[in-house]
Specification:
Strand content: under 5%
Structural class: mainly alpha
Low-confidence stretches: none
Number of helices: 5
Mean pLDDT: 89
Amino acid sequence: MSCRKFSARSEVLTYRQQFAETWRDFIQSNFESAAEAALVFRVDPSTAENWWTGANAPQGWVVARAIADPDMHDAALAAFGGR
């Protein structure tokens, strides 16, 4: 593999880690607990707990649902809109 391929992979991983932190901040700012987020997004409690701690980030459908939800729309756009 060329150095460029390794560099590109590193950038992707860094962005994934950054997004997990951004999602964690969004979840913690908009929900009282991981359990509440699990109910709203209809995911397993362990999935929501991983979001809460920043261990991982959701798939795109969850982010889209947050943006489409009138109660989360503004906060989601502020968090994920790159502003």
